Amino acid sequence: MHINRIAIIGAGTMGRGIAQVFAQAGLEVLLYDSDPDALAQSLATITERLRQQCVKGHLQEAACATALDALQGIERLEAIDADMIIEVVPERLDLKLDIFSHLRQVAQARTILASNTSGLDISALAQASGRPDKVIGMHFFNPPPIMPLIEVVRASETSEETFVAVIALAERLGKTPIPVANSPGFVANRILFPMINEAIYALAEGVASAADIDRVLVLGASHPLGPLALADFVGLDVTLDILDSFARRFDNAKYCPCPLLREMVDRGELGRKTGQGFFSYP
Known about the structure:
This protein is α/β, with parallel strands linked by helices. It folds into two domains: about 5-180, NAD(P)-binding Rossmann-like Domain (Rossmann fold), CATH 3.40.50.720; about 190-265, N-(1-d-carboxylethyl)-l-norvaline Dehydrogenase, domain 2, CATH 1.10.1040. About 50% of the residues lie in helices and about 15% in strands. The protein contains eleven helices and eight strands. It has helices spanning about 15-25, 35-55, 60-70, 95-105, 120-130, 160-170, 190-205, 210-220, 225-235, 235-250, 260-265, and strands at about 5-10, 30, 70-75, 85, 110-115, 135-140, 150-155, 175-180. Strands 3-2-1-4-5-6-7-8 form an eight-stranded mixed beta sheet, sandwiched between helices. The protein is globular, with a radius of gyration of 19 Å.
């Protein structure tokens, strides 16, 4: 199956980044958000980013014009006619299940349904969709226009045709697709978030300051960003949700979030988005 028309549900940070990636690759992109203001803002942001790519010489003028022409916002999910629909909403299984249940009614039978989840159960979404063979995970990394990796998550129900089509699509975007199993956190987050959690424990136990913990990983392990600064970037509330999910799904105490993380979230210290996390952001 050749995919040319993509619909994206969710126009937040990741949604608009993914929309930009597809538009730059010359695919037709339909962007939806339940909040009309968020949709309008995201379309304006993508347009400006594409124009900046043209100004900097990273994108030819003709390609920029084609990308802008191919990008449009839609106001109703019922209006979606696409080869593939990608769900890019907040990391809540109940919300994603509602969307896949709705798509069961409105998406065409040929349409592949993908989720950008960073670790939730693809099989649960597949069952809600009514077309489990056409459901797959397509986990982009933030920021999507820059990060080269896509984790392609194949559930037991995912057909070979769907898998092959999505791998080919990722390569068409200039990305590196890596197949992973439908296991909590897949690969990247299963390794990354326990590391962040351990860094929080090290801080709580007074092993080193937040700045020095991050410096150790940057200078000693060549990480581009320390684990505590990364948690601030992701959001401490999101970090807590992911670790809580791991603890439940693996039924293993090693994934239990550090109490300090839970205390900070309770105080509203969520990282960059609130101006205060492990570090301050004026």
